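WARN retry 2 of 3 for item q-0093 after timeout on previous attempt; input resubmitted unchanged.
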Amino acid sequence: MSSLTLTLQITPNARRSEVVGWMGDRLKVKIKSPAVEGKANAELLRFLGELFEVRASAVTLLRGETARLKVVRIDGVEENEKEQRLIFLEKTKKQH
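OK item q-0093 returned
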């Protein structure tokens, strides 16, 4: 198993949690929870776990606990899955 590290630009308190697309080297993600008492961070970890099909506990917030710019590590992503997920996210970039 390997891990994937992503830099994210987060928008909290959105209608739903979703990937918006790429902003340069950052992935823009909207999170439905408000940025209050760690709720947005918890929702972010849950959402990324669902997106990458890993447990939320396999997603670690490395930097940006109180900022909108965050760095996360996602453990348990097989090398071939990592490439497929990044291709999917790259297609998202081209659509927005």
